[in-house]
Amino acid sequence: MSAGGTAGSDAGPGAGFPQGGGGPGGPAAPAGPGAVTGPGPTVGADRAFGARLMAPLLLGSLLNPVNSTMIATALVAIGRDFRVGAADTAWLISAMYLASAVGQPSLGRLADRIGPRRVFTAGALTVCAAGVIGALAPTFTLLIVSRVVLGVGTAAAYPAAMAVLRAESLRTGRPTPRRVLGRLSLAALASAAVGPTLGGLLAATAGWRAVFAVNVPLALLALAGALAWLPADPKDARPGRAGSPSSLDPLGIALFAGALTCAMVFLLRLADPRWPLLAPAGVLAGVLVWWQLRHPAPFIDLRMLAGNGPLVRTYLRQGLTYLVIYCVLYGFSQWLEQAYGASSFQAGLIMLPMSLAAAACSLVGARTKGVRAPLTLAAACLALGSGVFLLLHGTGPLVALLCAGALFGIPQGLASTGNQAAVYAQAPADGVGAAAGLQRTAQYLGAITASGLIGLLYGQRAGDAGLHQIALIGGALGLLLLLLTLADRGLRPGALGSGV
User: Which residues form a coiled coil (predicted)?
Assistant: First the structure.
């Protein structure tokens, strides 16, 4: 993946962003956090990265996270209308994550090659098409197709936005201000946090199809803003690294998508495992490794990962953390409706403390200089929240539900910004964007695994027993994450400060 063009993960203002120019040939890296070159940096940066440039980037960048969580409080209504259970509705979750996991780095490379404005506008049009397909889908299969299209379309915004900011930094000769990158981060975290409440409101007032239809006006607004305010793509030069290969490595992308699809289909049927799928998944993964080690510009830089243990451990933490978070996010909402007896709107309101806690902690995490402390607190809250979930029953008090949700909102904000800061500090200087893209892929893999576990533990209906099993898994993984975080020497201030 091209460095800088695939920064799909959320980068908080507290992260140490290297090389504001985006690569060799750009302006020199700032001397320290927040430092810029030249006189009058604040005024120049404000004019270059103003509201007109940022408005479409922020709007487009929130479409993926809000759609990843907004559907949580509409799954029961969808399953009821199409007469399918939780194991089947899990496809609506995993299909989008699979498309996003492959589309994010691929579209980032494409943005570097043909221009970020073209990729951004094409993504917005694709989101419009997905919204129409989902809103009018007569069958459950077509609804899954709409989620795949939605995953591809929404995956374009983040890498295109980062490429636009990098190009603007090169044009002005100034690093992208940290507060600008922080706005992208907070837009993604906040939209993901309010997604369940928004989805419940739409499902309760206009029906679950509104959860798909709302993408049409949002995408059209982002498209109009992009056409009016984003700078035109250069005709004879691309805003990527000088001398980097232009190949998109289509074979590497296809092998990765094939291996991930086989694994996803296997995970979604854990109650009745399709063991033969493991053979093609293993073969495709093996061929992928062989090809990536021989390609001059690989889709996934395995050599960089093999020599960077701290970065690999950060990916592991990200994947495990979001495995627990998404198990709770999707599992809790279904349990509230089917076991507790709440409506879609009521379920969204009950999950509101989780959303508020996630948004507040994202602000705190973005302003925290250290990494180990917020990640340790996030792991502890995962374990503690899972313990509270073990005490919940369909007839339990409302205050217990609100407290349990709030506990799981804390790691959503702290883990995202903490792991992002670690990625920026641990990644090679010329590969921060590629490393950030892989962090988002690790998050998607956690979400896909969570979908399979929910289908296995709930079956056709969410109940107390399934929720308690989810809590046991979450508690075990929370304790494991706590140990991994405390034992990771790569998170020491000295190690992070020196980089890799």
Answer: none
CA distance linking residue 325 with residue 322, whole number of Å: 5
Tokens of 374: 């917020």
Q: How many CB atoms lie within 10 A of CB 408?
A: 27
**Residue 29 within a domain:** no
Q: Are 94 and 208 in the same domain? A: yes
CA distance 325 to 411: 8
- Model confidence pLDDT, tens digit, residues 98-152: 898 888 877 877 887 788 899 999 999 999 999 999 999 999 999 999 999 999 9
What DSSP state is assigned to residue 29? Answer: P
Phi/psi region, residue 167 (left: phi>0; alpha: psi -120 to 50; beta: rest), is alpha
Cα 377 to Cα 368: distance, rounded to the nearest angstrom: 13
d(CA 26, CA 41): 16
60: number of Cβ within 10 Å: 30
Rg (CA), the chain: 21
Contact (Cβ atoms closer than 8 angstroms) between residue 389 and residue 328: yes
49, 52, 56, 57: CA torsion to nearest 10: 0
Are 299 and 1 in contact by the 8 Å Cβ rule? The answer is: yes
Taking the C-alpha atoms of residue 359 and residue 352, their distance in angstroms, rounded to an integer, is 11
Q: Evaluate whether 441 touches 368 at the Cβ level (below 8 Å).
A: no
Nearest to 59 by CA among 122, 104, 120: 120
**Tokens standing for 135?**
């809103």
Separation of CA 187 from chain center: 12
Smallest Cα–Cα separation from 433: which of 179, 144, 176?
176
147, 98 in Cβ contact below 8 A? no
Residue 41 near residue 299 (C-beta atoms within 8 A): no
Reference 347, options 88, 150, 69, 131; nearest CA is 69
Q: Look at the chain and report how many structural domains it folds into.
A: 3
Is 485 a domain residue? Answer: yes
Q: Mark whether 308 and 445 lie in a shared domain.
A: yes
Cα separation, 415 vs 399, whole angstroms: 25
Tens digit of each residue's pLDDT (9 = 90 or more) over 203-241:
989 999 999 999 999 999 999 999 999 988 877 544 444
Q: What is the CATH number of the domain that holds 56?
A: 1.20.1250.20
H or E element, residue 44: helix 41-48
